[in-house]
Prior knowledge:
This protein is α+β, with helices and mostly antiparallel strands.
Amino acid sequence: MSVRMIRIVSRESDGSLRVKEFEDLKEIRRQYEQIGLDDCNTELSLRGYPLFRGLIGPMADGGDFARYETPGVFEVLTKEWATAKSRRRRAKTIIPPAHFPNVAMPVSMPDFVSG
């Protein structure tokens, strides 16, 4: 298990997000009951991190943070993420054949001058 800072995101009573960062798991274990270990995270560096009752995670949050969220925060942020409009993509640019020197080009017939 690599050393990361731990970030817990919860909601304040006024509805704003509260982000609290920890350097180790000792204080988190005092506040939340550990119910297991993450053994199937797609982020390999997070495998082995604890699972806590009342928190969803761990999930990668930047290079140096493992993130846990309360269920309410997770639900709201997931809905926002799912409904966010993605950027429109441009149509692919067609590259003219002259940029491909190994491709056979049709040969045009020379103009014959009648004489």
